Sequence to fold (215 residues):
Amino acid sequence: MKRVIVIGLGIFGFNIAKDLYENGIEVIAVDKNKEIIQKIKDFSTKAIVADGTDKEVLESIGIQPDDVVIISFGEDLSASTLITLHLKEMKVKTIIVKVPNEDHKRVLEKVGATELLIPEREVADKLAKSLISPNVLDYLPLSEDYTICEIAPPPSYFGKSIGELHLRSKYHIEVIAVREMLPERLTLVPRADFVIKDSDILVVIGKEGDIQKIK
Fold:
């Protein structure tokens, strides 16, 4: 994977940097706080005490157009905006910014951020979905309409084949994989005659409203 520069080491930035580094990614961590840099130095390729809003600092780090830059400044819109503008001038292609709300998101979109994250909202959405639909184990939004979900099949599905359930014609949902627990294996694009067991997990794609119908 490309090198990742994380600017701003609050809880979110620190943990992103640490997780990436522990998974073999080259990570450069940047923050003005010396104490935080001391804590992250063992979990990053390079840890730098510096003001990330200073363009000269960004240039001295040697950020390249193909690097991935993650900006994590919480409520500080001016800092996130200034860094994004500097990175755009440096031709950086992937600029990911953590923002606290939709207003900040719109501003950063306009100045050139390529991806905006609102972690608190995403966690809230995920928790709400897990309470509304307990059999939806995990989900990945693909767009405003379509989602990939892992679903624990309801008891009425046990012993029936995927073809018998008519999920595509009834609900416009496609089963793209089955995670079998006993024995442990993944079956991609299962055949229509695949019989569902009580230990299986269905991986489906469809519109969120349609997926809710089989909860």
In short: The CA atoms of residues 90 and 203 lie 41 Å apart. Residues 119-132 form the longest helix (14 residues). Residues 4-117 form a domain with the Rossmann fold fold (CATH 3.40.50.720).
